[in-house]
């Protein structure tokens, strides 16, 4: 049973008071006027909210308002001074009581609220990832982002631009304006080799992009705008009737997450074209206790190389301030990584561009183990890029098998042989990846190309061990440890590198230690080293996030 104030819902005078009804759905007498832009995506968003409210018994009427961004479709974002060029006119209509509430792409709303206005509710979160759409004759699967050399890429976002150029400095970035269908038509008309758009817009509009090669970019690696994929429902402060109505369609958990993202962003006092990406997730541990993760990519100038961050907390109340302060602080250090370093690779370029000194040396090397032709299996699973290399270089055949991998780096290595992974385990918890993979495979059989004496963590998650077929394709051999430069940060990439290093060298108490994966961390702990930072993911960005965040 619920209690309703009838004079809030009916248009005839009724004596004020409380009336009780069973199974009563209240209907608001007033028709709420909803303000929105008139683009195809904005209208989808407005009509979605309209339908949700009408399901809750609240009538709405749509009022389309043109913003500066709509009136000047060819004006460059960088030339638009100030903030809110997709929201200002709508907010003015709201303040002037021409509309009762507004529906915005929440990422377009300035993080500093207009006086007298507030966001009362948010929608569910659509896919927050970025989407690269590529003309199919411009695809090169062996290159980062699957783009050919020297591509012409369209985007108007400074945040996207700095992240794109970090991965692919050979790109030429060209301004791209217009609504989502207009942008896609420009790609179709060959004005660009590729464009970057938010996945949410394409999915909400149901646009068929099968004529292009589409690459979704992980939000932990290519960090989106705060609140990307979420709708913000804005009202006048103190309007309790509209506020209460919008609570019927509010998503509190989404609201909690995007409030953190936007608060971090707001602490930089920048507009929506600030080159800062923030993405946050809420998780629960085995005891069902909540904790939060956040990822950031930040460049202090439009043409500077971004820094990458990863954070985690159980206390979100003051977290935004701590995260923002860490991102703003530049504290270059010296880094040593247990692998051979190339001057032109992404890892080295990112560190050097931000004032870090980097050196590295692998203390292990790999030799192939020759194998015959294994029996066909339903799946083939690669736990490292070395397994990929030594399997395919010996003419290993995939046939009709599906492919699973651990980490983005292994997935990228797979593409060098013209293959794509059907399953990618992104977690640094190898046991968790094994459980996820075993659940997907069900009763299928799996071939595991691997190192000799592999720890077999993924295989151990299969209850029926007869499903698993091990195939040693390479062995690890230690190399002499010499010429290790003193460094503020030591990054160990494997248990074997830890063992080889500690046989000859000692770690200093002042050094900060990063481990790539649980197995590497456990090897360090067995040697009495307990203050260890784990990389958040098994890829280049994960390594950088660990270094910049430590």
Count, helices: 16
Question: What is the number of E strands?
Answer: 26
Which strands sit side by side, in order, in the main sheet?
18-23-22-19-20-21
Q: Which percent band covers the strand fraction?
A: 15-25%
Give the C-alpha Rg.
Answer: 27 Å
Q: Can you summarize the main beta sheet?
A: 6 strands, mixed
Helix content: 25-40%
Tell me the distance between the termini.
Answer: 53 Å
Low-confidence stretches: 1-25, 78-82
SS content category: alpha/beta
Name the average pLDDT: 89
Q: Judging from the principal axes of the Cα atoms, what is the shape? A: globular
Chart the SSEs and their pairings:
Layout lengths: L1 E4 L12 E4 L10 E5 L3 H16 L4 E5 L3 H4 L16 H8 L5 E5 L11 E6 L7 E6 L16 E3 L3 H10 L4 E3 L5 H9 L5 E5 H7 L6 E6 L13 E6 L3 H8 L4 H15 L9 E9 L5 E9 L8 E7 L5 H10 L5 E4 L8 H8 L3 E4 L3 E5 L10 E4 L2 H8 L9 E5 H9 L7 E3 L4 H12 L4 E6 L16 E11 L10 E4 L2 H10 L7 E4 L2 H9 L5 E3 L5 H10 L1
Parallel strand pairs: 3-4, 3-5, 8-9, 8-10, 16-17, 16-24, 19-20, 19-22, 20-21, 22-23, 24-25, 25-26
Antiparallel strand pairs: 1-2, 5-12, 6-12, 7-10, 7-11, 13-14, 14-15, 18-23
């Amino acid at each position: 049973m619920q209690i309703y104030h009838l004079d809030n819902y009916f248009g005839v005078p009724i004596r004020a008071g409380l009336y009780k009804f069973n199974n009563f759905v209240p209907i608001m007498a007033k028709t709420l006027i909803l303000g929105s832009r008139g683009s195809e995506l904005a209208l989808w968003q407005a009509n979605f909210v309209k339908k949700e409210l009408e399901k809750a018994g609240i009538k709405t009427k749509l009022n389309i308002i043109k913003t500066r961004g709509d009136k000047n479709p060819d004006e460059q974002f960088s030339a638009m001074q100030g903030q809110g060029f997709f929201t200002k006119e709508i907010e003015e209509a709201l303040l002037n009581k021409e509309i009762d509430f507004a529906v915005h792409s929440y990422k377009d709303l300035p993080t500093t609220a207009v006086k007298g206005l507030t966001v009362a509710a948010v929608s569910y979160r659509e896919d927050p990832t970025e989407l690269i759409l590529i003309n199919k004759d411009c695809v090169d699967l062996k290159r980062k982002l699957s783009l050919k050399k020297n591509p012409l890429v369209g985007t108007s976002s400074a945040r996207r631009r700095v992240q794109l150029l970090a991965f692919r400095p050979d790109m030429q970035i060209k301004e791209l304006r217009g609504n989502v269908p207009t942008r896609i038509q420009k790609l179709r008309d060959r004005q660009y080799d590729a464009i970057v758009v938010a996945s949410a817009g394409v999915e909400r509009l149901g646009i068929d992009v099968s004529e292009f090669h589409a690459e979704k970019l992980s939000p932990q690696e290519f960090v989106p705008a705060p609140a990307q994929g979420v709708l913000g429902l804005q009202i006048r402060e103190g309007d309790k009737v509209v506020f209460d109505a919008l609570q019927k369609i509010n998503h509190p958990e989404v609201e909690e997450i995007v409030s953190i993202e936007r608060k971090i962003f707001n602490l930089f006092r920048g507009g929506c074209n600030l080159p800062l990406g923030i993405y946050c997730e809420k998780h629960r541990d085995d005891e069902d206790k909540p904790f939060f993760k956040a990822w950031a990519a930040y460049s202090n100038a439009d043409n500077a190389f971004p820094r990458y961050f990863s954070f985690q907390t159980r206390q979100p109340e003051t977290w935004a301030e701590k995260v923002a302060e860490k991102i703003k602080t530049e504290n270059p250090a010296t880094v040593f990584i247990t692998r051979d370093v190339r001057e032109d690779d992404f890892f080295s370029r990112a560190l050097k561009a931000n004032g870090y000194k980097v050196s590295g040396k692998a203390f292990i090397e790999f030799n192939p183990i020759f194998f015959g032709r294994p029996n066909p299996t339903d799946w083939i699973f690669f736990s490292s890029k070395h397994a990929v290399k030594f399997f395919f270089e010996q003419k290993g055949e995939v046939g009709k098998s599906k492919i699973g991998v651990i980490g983005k780096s292994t997935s990228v290595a797979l593409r060098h042989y013209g293959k794509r992974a059907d399953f990618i385990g992104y977690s640094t918890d190898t046991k968790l990846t094994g459980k996820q993979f075993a659940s997907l495979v069900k009763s299928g059989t799996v071939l595991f190309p691997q190192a000799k004496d592999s720890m077999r963590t993924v295989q151990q998650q299969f209850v029926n061990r007869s499903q698993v077929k091990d195939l040693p394709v390479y062995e690890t051999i230690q190399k002499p440890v010499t010429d290790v430069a003193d460094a503020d940060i030591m990054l160990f990439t494997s248990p074997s590198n830890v063992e080889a290093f500690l046989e000859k060298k000692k770690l200093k108490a002042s050094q900060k230690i990063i481990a790539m994966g649980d197995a590497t961390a456990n090897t360090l702990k067995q040697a009495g080293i307990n203050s260890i930072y784990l990389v958040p993911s098994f890829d280049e960005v994960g390594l950088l996030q660990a270094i910049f965040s430590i």
